[in-house]
Amino acid sequence: MKDRILVKLKEAYPDCISGAQLAESLGISRVAVWKHIESLKESGYEIVAKKGRGYCLEHPEQAIIPVLISENLADPHWGTPIFYTGQTQSTNLWARQLLEDQHLPEGTLIIASQQTGGRGRLGRTWASPRGGLYFTLILRPALNLKNASLLSLVMAVACARSLRQHTGCACRIKWPNDIFIQGRKVGGILLEARGEMDRLDYVIAGIGINVNLSSQDFPEEVRHLAVSLAMVAGHSFDLNQLLVSLLEDLRQDYYLFLQKGFQPFREVYQEYCIHWQQPIAVNTGKELIQGIHRDLDVNGSLLVETADGEITSISTGDVQLISYQEE
Ligand code: BTN
Which of 134, 204, 243, 246 is the pocket-test mutation for ligand 1 (most atoms within 8 Å of CB)? Predict the structure, then answer.
């Protein structure tokens, strides 16, 4: 019922809709409407009651409404069931907690409007104020751990390509799976796998995209490194629509990867990668390796040519761009 109220409010926007109208169209009492509205407000939806006019949903493009996701999915097995909450610590963490108690099928979507302890790669945090997309997909690929690194590159291609197509923003990739625009980070992917080395049990694929954030929404220390789609495009995006298109592209690329491996993605990865054949420094956590990024190996590791002409393979680390120029 709450989703139906939200849909009505969103359809009415920018107008208000009275409690009586809502009650009549949904076949419930006005008291029931009021109770639902109060509970929606508690979950973080910005609903205001305007004197003599009724209820109005402020910033409707920011309101994640699960039914508007589920009913627009091309394949009902990907993106459902949906676990949604207004706020959680981290959707990856929530996914793990859910998986402790129940079986979640491949394609399960776990999503929040904001995270209080969003987690990034290499133990970093992920700023997750309202206005972004923060979601986790449960995957059950028949892969070994090595191929899971390639999966993380495939997801980066899927996100960058999808966001480019649906927002017009020139998204690119920084190895392994950072989504960049104009030299700043707009999205990231955190894959957490469980299982044996040669057979994964499941993969928790967490994706964060800075969609409708303004510069002030980012913590000061990352403000110069981060950007949002809205900042680049000059207008905001409907979170439900953007998520549906992203899910569809992730689904297609994920199943293509399971069928055909990384080969269909090699060229696109190269095209989207911002440091291909460029000088980089990679902090592996143990050392800083400088050189020219030459290629990827079969496992998706970076192949870097160092000053002595040797090729070093790097499987994990943080790439720093030495001379970045957006073409
Ligand atoms: C990175 O680039 O460091 C990865 C960032 C991943 C952020 C997403 S947001 C949804 C999911 N939940 C988390 O706590 N992290 C991922």
Answer: 134
Report the predicted TM-score, pTM, of the whole model to 2 decimal places: 0.94
The domain over range 279-321 is classified in CATH as 2.30.30.100: yes
Q: What is the mean pLDDT of residues 111-125?
A: 95
Tell me, which fold does domain 66-272 have in CATH? Answer: BirA Bifunctional Protein; domain 2 (3.30.930)
Q: Which atom in ligand 1 lies closest to the alpha carbon of residue 112?
A: 10
Pick the atom of ligand 1 nearest to 124's CA.
Answer: 3
324 band by pLDDT with thresholds 50, 70 and 90 = low
Ligand 1 contacts CB of residue 132 (under 6 A): no
301 lines ligand 1 (CB under 6 A): no
Label each residue of the chain as H, E or C. CHHHHHHHHHHHCCCCECHHHHHHHHCCCHHHHHHHHHHHHHCCCCEEEECCCEEEECCHHHCCCHHHHHCCCCCCCCCCCEEEEEEECCHHHHHHHHHHHCCCCCCCEEEEEEECCCECHHHCECCCCECEEEEEEEECCCCCHHHHHHHHHHHHHHHHHHHHHHHCCCCEEECCCEEEECCEEEEEEEEEEEEECCEEEEEEEEEEECCCCCHHHCCHHHCCCECCHHHHHCCCCCHHHHHHHHHHHHHHHHHHHHHHCCHHHHHHHHHHECCCCCEEEEECCCCEEEEEEEEECCCCCEEEECCCCCEEEECCCEEEECCCCCC
